[in-house]
Amino acid sequence: xxxxxxxxxxxxxxxxxxxxxxxxxxxxxxxxxxxxxxxxxxxxxxxxxxxxxxxxxxxxxxxxxxxxxxxxxxxxxxxxxxxxxxxxxxxxxxxxxxxxxxxxxxxx
Length: 108
What we know:
Elements (H helix, E strand, L loop, with lengths): L1 E8 L5 H8 L4 H9 L2 E9 L2 E8 L2 H9 L2 H11 L28
Antiparallel strand pairs: 1-3, 2-3
């Protein structure tokens, strides 16, 4: 299991819309994420900055599985209207590098 931290940024004025869209994600996207090995995905927001923590079997495999999945393609089209930089799942993103962990906290 991998624990991946991500940082994304909203376009100015899109905070409320982003939260509204995430209140309930489409069932097809939920199923696609779970089928791709995602166990949990949490997002925190500070102004326009979004901080994600994803617990997933294999992050790169998940991105590959979702890249052309119809539910994710539709979701990313919606996100492209809200995010300052859209993610087309074509890169080799590995998340944010971890720089510190409280010793003995049993991280991933």
